[in-house]
Amino acid sequence: MIDVVLVDDQALLRTGFRMILDAEPDISVVGEAGDGEAGISLVRTAHPDVVLMDIRMPGTNGIDATARIVRESPQCRVLILTTFDLDEYVFAALRAGASGFLLKDARPAELLNAIRTVAAGEAVLAPSATRRLIERFAPSLDPAPPPARSDVLADLTDRERDVFGQIAAGRSNREIAAALHVSEGTVKVHVSRVLSKLGLRDRVQAVIHAYDSGLVAPGSRQP
To answer: Are 14 and 25 spatial neighbours (Cβ–Cβ below 8 Å)?
Structure first.
């Protein structure tokens, strides 16, 4: 069973989401909150697998709430809900630790698939879409304090560095396999090792980390 918490200041929207989710045999809504602070408190007591998090709310916004939830409850995945396809706040939320974002007008099937994907430990946002988001908004945002580039790559093998660069370029496993002339299974192993060594939750966080660390600059092109 996937336990879900809904955090959104629009009660009607929460009701709609709850109706969709509670109709599924493998998903249960274990709580609702109307603002970020209440959402943080609810996560502490309900211990959900996934939080559906609005960004723009009174009081504690979704970005700050996401950062605190990820820090306090690292097993919990946060899926950002937004009415904007390319919203600068979405990038900030991803950098804070969210595992992806979803438009509020997404179809029910998309919502359900996103929740199941995030609960399984994957990201719901294609890395290429993450890269476009970063290239558009990262230059105008305050950067996160980056580690030295050498520190970022020190624990990676040469092949893992190649894979990390490909991830940062927004390429899928199939594309990486073709570029490096290896199997997709081999790529999956390397991706898992890269994420583990760098302490990252998923591929979206890997792309964010590559930009924040200076490995990739907004607007650059990877080979």
So the answer is: no
Which amino acid is present at 194? Answer: V
Contact 68, 45 (CB under 8 A): no
**Cα 55 to chain center, whole Å?**
14
- Residue 171, pLDDT > 80, answer yes
Residue 43 has pLDDT above 70, yes or no: yes
Query: Which residues touch 10 (CB under 8 Å, ≥6 apart)?
Result: 54
Tokens read off for 128 = 């290429």
Q: Look at residue 222 and tell me whether its pLDDT is greater than 60.
A: no
Q: Which of 29-43, 53-67, 71-85, 191-205 has the highest mean pLDDT?
A: 29-43
Residue type, 160: E
What are the residues whose beta carbons fall under 8 Å from the beta carbon of 200, sequence distance 6 or more? 194, 206, 209
* Domains defined along the chain, listed by start: 2-125 (3.40.50.2300), 139-212 (1.10.10.10)
Quickly state the pLDDT bin for 40 (edges 50, 70, 90): very high
- Cα 61 from Cα 91, distance rounded (Å): 14
Strand ranges, E, within 60-214: 77-82, 101-103
In total, the chain counts a number of residues equal to: 223
Average pLDDT in the 87-111 region? 86
Rounded to the nearest angstrom, the gap between the alpha carbon of residue 7 and the centroid of all alpha carbons in its chain is 16
Amino acid residing at 85: D
